[in-house]
Amino acid sequence: MPPAAPLRPRATGEPLGIAGGGGSLPRVVADAAAANGWSPHLLGVGDGLATDWSPYPSRRMPWGQLGDGLAWLRDKGAHRLVLCGTISVRPDFRSIFPSIRTLLMLPQILSVVRGGDDSLLRAATRAFEARGFEVVGVQEIVPALLAPAGRIAGPAATVADEAAIERGFGAAAMLGALDIGQAAVASAERVIALEAIEGTREMLKRVADLHRRGRIGRSERCVLVKRCKPGQDRRLDLPSIGAATVEEAANAGLSGIAISAGEALMLDYDDLRRMADARRIFVIGYESETRDQP
Amino acid sequence: MPPAAPLRPRATGEPLGIAGGGGSLPRVVADAAAANGWSPHLLGVGDGLATDWSPYPSRRMPWGQLGDGLAWLRDKGAHRLVLCGTISVRPDFRSIFPSIRTLLMLPQILSVVRGGDDSLLRAATRAFEARGFEVVGVQEIVPALLAPAGRIAGPAATVADEAAIERGFGAAAMLGALDIGQAAVASAERVIALEAIEGTREMLKRVADLHRRGRIGRSERCVLVKRCKPGQDRRLDLPSIGAATVEEAANAGLSGIAISAGEALMLDYDDLRRMADARRIFVIGYESETRDQP
């Protein structure tokens, strides 16, 4: 199935709001949007607060100035907004009180700062929509990022790898159903590690450490799986991998990576493929039977 | 409910086999057994291979000499065997071939070295039983170690703590049902960390790190829960805590610890209580509604 066509602006130069956290995704989205005629306007949030977003116009949006950030976007004429990149640091109540515009949003903000990252994003989305913004998914702006089904890069998966993928996807489905995380590491025989709030990179560091200390058998083939949470709002926080993920998986002694086909995002694909070939790490798009119907 | 009476030897001096891994539990069991008239015979396994078990007679039992270890116990006249302490390092196939007695057990051993720690222990138990040993639980030898229901040590739990405990027990039940782990850290709002093969200590180090880096809110009260896996064989690998667990929980910024009442083990109780008071960490025995019926 070829990727869907990207969402285009109603008129060339229409501003697109991008609430950008950490990682490379926000810039990938901004560049693709610009190539399709949008005028990207960046709001640095979470881990993206310190990022230099030039050449795009940008504002920092700490939690205490959420109202001001949205007012700026509206002044610029933006109607659509993409949320992407990592947040990681929890909102601190003490940072919330400086601005008047933000005080007017307090009830929503209070609901934003409680709950897991997923409920945080959902609550933020509701607050943005209540202010007239349409929140769109990364994959609507850059559909080419979505992982295809089947082999994506690296060597073929073995039968043992397939069993590990099944086990990992089952564990990740349960993680997602409880709104805990999206990623797991498993072998054919057992689950090795589960991602909660620490994130995929730190989970893989842990697996590397377990390998070094003999806690994982020498011949035990382990895989990383990343998948959407069951029922997840596909406009928010899709699971993603990039070349760095492949490298981290290799350093953790894994044999490969499986991600939800048509739901997970692949960043810097050429680098990812080169890394997968160089480190002999398979990358496949997996169509889980437990995947939600669209 | 007062603790049940400990299992006593048929005759004073009857040998009791103790397959002892790492941690303080094997010696606690040996001392309690000796006080009740048993003659403890230790087989050092896993993390207990390098332990000095004196004054008790002992043998090292690497995976490759499992058969020899059991033969030694049988020669001594032991009929009953307790498995306790941590294993952590996976059996390595290359260590399995040295001994003739072990070669005769190869089919069982092959089933032992596959699967999670839980299936490893179950398979080991079947192998021991097939050789005429009766495997008994730690709590049969030292029933006083079982956690009572209700407040055990430290301050009272708050309403937010109760909600965190509920959430943590739910997550840990799911972990256990998939044979992944027994412990989780949660707040009232979300699950913070899940234990897979890394063990509780390392999970708590991770939570300490997440706290330091602002990934957990300053006012977010988090608790550690440890519980039996649903359907777990109660003779094997009961969840346990000690004074060190309380200290690690305090260092991780937690408010308290909840363990399954009547199922989890408390080691070094006096030290545990002193530590809980000193660090203001509550410890409670929790009667989960999802607890298995005995």
TrEMBL record, chains A, B:
<dbReference type="InterPro" id="IPR053174">
    <property type="entry name" value="LpxI"/>
</dbReference>
<protein>
    <recommendedName>
        <fullName>DUF1009 domain-containing protein</fullName>
    </recommendedName>
</protein>
<feature type="domain" description="LpxI N-terminal">
    <location>
        <begin position="16"/>
        <end position="145"/>
    </location>
</feature>
<dbReference type="InterPro" id="IPR043167">
    <property type="entry name" value="LpxI_C_sf"/>
</dbReference>
<dbReference type="Pfam" id="PF17930">
    <property type="entry name" value="LpxI_N"/>
</dbReference>
<dbReference type="Pfam" id="PF06230">
    <property type="entry name" value="LpxI_C"/>
</dbReference>
<dbReference type="InterPro" id="IPR041255">
    <property type="entry name" value="LpxI_N"/>
</dbReference>
<feature type="domain" description="LpxI C-terminal">
    <location>
        <begin position="149"/>
        <end position="284"/>
    </location>
</feature>
<dbReference type="InterPro" id="IPR010415">
    <property type="entry name" value="LpxI_C"/>
</dbReference>
